[in-house]
Structure formats: structure tokens, C-alpha cells
């Protein structure tokens, strides 16, 4: 059964007479290792009702474009097929997510929702809870330890959150076996607005921002996520603690886009890593990133309403950056040459091209890429806004709590003060000499250019 601490009543009350139990799927776009779906099935079996899943697909999701929608739709096709085999109705609608849920709430005995962390996602759930004619239950699906259980406040660093997570990690990683519905939803004869398995037609008809193309390097969906995880367990996890920072080796799981779209559960990934045949130090190094660092970002966006604004930075960082705001920048770039990868730094250009071409970038290069934007732009506020805009536009895992926290990290969030220097003040600095000293970085540059589109500048 789903852990009680994962469950919150948004609209309390006993189930009412209804035709089905409704799961409003939005964040957890998967049919396995999904506590919200599991709870909906359990409650439906108790009430002797079938399960219906609603999904709202809006064409104007904040900062999303064709790249993001293509990846998401590929995953939704798998979800629809999987749920249908289990006798669960999957009804996707061309509608704002709250409206999709409310369209079906009238016939529901109970409405179950997964959890979203960003401002608009939380507002969606408040709207549904306020307007639904039935009880509404929210289930934590995307972290190991629920955000409020892990900490009641915004944490200042990984070191302050880590012991709170570690004390409870084992309890919340216990597997909850999936249960199928006792009653099929097929006799309900309900229909959504589109066929999720016809992704090509769906993408063609949606009025999307088409300025950023899909990427062939990543295909969405659980099957591909699981294939990447299995390969990582064999090839990437052994030696992970030593090699994970190397942008040339790129010994990472490549799962961040799949976790962002909820196409694979963090619990499934963590349990697979715990049981893998790899040295303990490698398993723990990966779990540190997957659980502690990722859930630190969830903590950030949950407790900081200004998570996407410059004001979210710690006082010491804003103070030291203000003291150096008038320091000369040489070179000094605007957004246009940065986005076109037309700087004097070949390593940064390669990282930008990698991001535009693949929708992904090795973690160490992400840090270097972000620090250079701070160094090169006219003031730190402009740098912050530009970095976040580029991150969310091109990365498949942009617009995620991790994205907001990682961008802010480049400006001092969840970090400490370092020796003072021009432009950066006491914010951590990175330079090209460090890249050359630590890695065969020219190999990364060559690989990016070899794999880039011929039209890429």
C-alpha cells in the first residue's frame, strides 16, 4: 500500500457515489512505479469501481516548445497502451490540465492527483481542489522522501538536507507492488480528445512553439528510460564516483529528461542502483545525486516562491555580486552571440552547441557553461535571466526544479563563499584552465562538432 505520508487530502471527505475513481495524471507520466496510480487502483477496488486516468495537454505550457512536446508525447503513447492493457481508461484532452481533471470529476467518486512543485503546478491543484464536486487526494510521486517530511523549511545546502534524507530513505524506498483494477473501465465507453498513440498527428495539429527542433538523441517513454538505466547499471555505474564529472567519458545515466517528465520513477531507479553489482562508493555517489541533490532542488522550489528570480539567491551572494557589478567584463556578450555559440571560448561554444543539438550536456560542462554566462554579461541580474531562459529553452530537462536550482547555484545558491575575485566576488569561479587540467577537453569539443548539425554555427 502507498505510504500514508505520501498522501494529502486537498479536499477532504469520504468517497461519494460515482461511476469510477479518477486519477488526474500530470507530473507522473508513467504506468509503473506510480504511487498516485497505485492509490487510485486500491481505492477503486475497495469501492468496486473502475479506474479512469485524465491528462490535460495544453499547447501553451510555460516555456515549452516542440522539442519538449515531442519527447512528452512519445512517452504518453506508451502510457496509453499500458493502461489500456490493464483495463484502465486513459483520456487525454486538449485542455488546460485543471480543466481536463474537472471535465471528468463530475462522475468520480474520488479524484487522485500526483504532485507538482512549481508555482503554476501548485495553482492547478488548488483550482481542482476548490472546484471539484468530489474529494481530492494528492500523492507524492516524484521524490523518495516527501518534501515536507524531509524538511519544514528551505535548506541552505546539501549538507543540511542530507542527514534528514538519510534517516528516512530506507523507509520510503520500500517497493509497493502494483495491483490491477478488479473492474475494467471499458464498459464506461469514455473518450478523450485525441489518440495518444498517434503522436505525429497530435504534434502536427497543436499550435506549438516550433522554433526548437526535436532531438534524435533522446526518445521519450518508459521503455527507453529503462533501457538507459539497465545500460548504466552495467557500464556507467562501476567507476561512477571517479568518472561522473568527466565530460568526455560521460559516464552518467542520461535519465534526467525521463525523470523530469515523470516517465520513470525515482524509486525504481534508486532500488535498481542499490541492487546493482557495483562498488558501494559508486552506488552511493549516484544516489547522492539522484536523491539528496535532486530533492534539494525540490526543497528550493517548494519553500521559495521566488525560485525563478534573482532574489532567491542567498544574501551573501547578492551582496558580493552587487559589490562587483561594475567590474569590467572582457569580453562582454549579449544573449544573441551566446545563443549562437559565437564566443571566443571553444569549450563554451561546444557546450552550447551540444545543448542546442542534443538537448543535453554533461554535468560538469553545465556548471562551466553557467559560470561563464555570469562572467561575460553586463550585470548578474541579466546573466541570471539569460541563463535560465537558455536552459529552459533547449534542455529536455529544463523547466524542472533541478533547472531552477542549478542555475541559481551558478550564482551562489546552496554553496559557500570562496576567495574574492573580480566580477564573481566570493561566488565560486570556474575557468578553461581547470577544464584542460582535469579532462581531455579537446576530445569533447571534437565529439560535439562531429555530431552537430552542419548548419550549426
TrEMBL record:
GO biological process: photoreactive repair
Key words of the record: DNA damage, DNA repair, DNA-binding, FAD, Flavoprotein, Lyase
Superkingdom, natural source: Bacteria
EC number: 4.1.99.3
Reaction equation(s) it catalyzes: cyclobutadipyrimidine (in DNA) = 2 pyrimidine residues (in DNA)
InterPro entries: Crypto/Photolyase_FAD-like_sf, Crypto/Photolyase_N_sf, DNA_photolyase_2_CS, DNA_photolyase_N, Photolyase_Class-2, Rossmann-like_a/b/a_fold
PROSITE patterns (UniProt xref): DNA_PHOTOLYASES_2_2, PHR_CRY_ALPHA_BETA
Gene Ontology MF term list: deoxyribodipyrimidine photo-lyase activity; DNA binding
Enzyme class, UniProt record, top EC level: lyase
Pfam families per UniProt: DNA_photolyase (PF00875)
Domain Photolyase/cryptochrome alpha/beta residue range list: 19-147
Cofactors required: (6R)-5,10-methylene-5,6,7,8-tetrahydrofolate; FAD
Key word Transport present: no
Stated family: Belongs to the DNA photolyase class-2 family.
The protein, known as: Deoxyribodipyrimidine photo-lyase
The organism of origin for this protein: Thiohalorhabdus denitrificans
